[in-house]
Amino acid sequence: MKNVCNEEELHRARIKSALAAMPDDDKIGEMSARFKAISEPSRLKILLALEGGELCVDHIVEAVGGNQSAVSHQLKTLKDNKIVKSRRAGKKILYSVSDGHVMAMIELSKEHLNCDE
Length: 117
Hints:
Layout: H1 2-21, H2 25-39, H3 41-50, E1 55-56, H4 57-64, H5 68-80, E2 84-89, E3 92-97, H6 100-112
Antiparallel strand pairs: 1-3, 2-3
């Protein structure tokens, strides 16, 4: 009987710890939106292209394929989710990654591709 009590106390402590570490619902929504934004293959390809530094839309299209309109649409989604940013350089708009944490997640995911676990 004592084992059951200790296990129950352990589980209660884990629940308390999980609740203390849990972000509020707004933050959970933000996290979910970012995961959703990077989970779409063409947006992920854009981020991988931007990994090396800023590029204009034409160069992003060249790096990832597709057409300018589709890439621009995906860039807007990434900007809306604060994952990429843009700046004007003369007549060109240059895009770059604004959230290094997202790139760290992508790098970890790339490493995981080679994991046999």
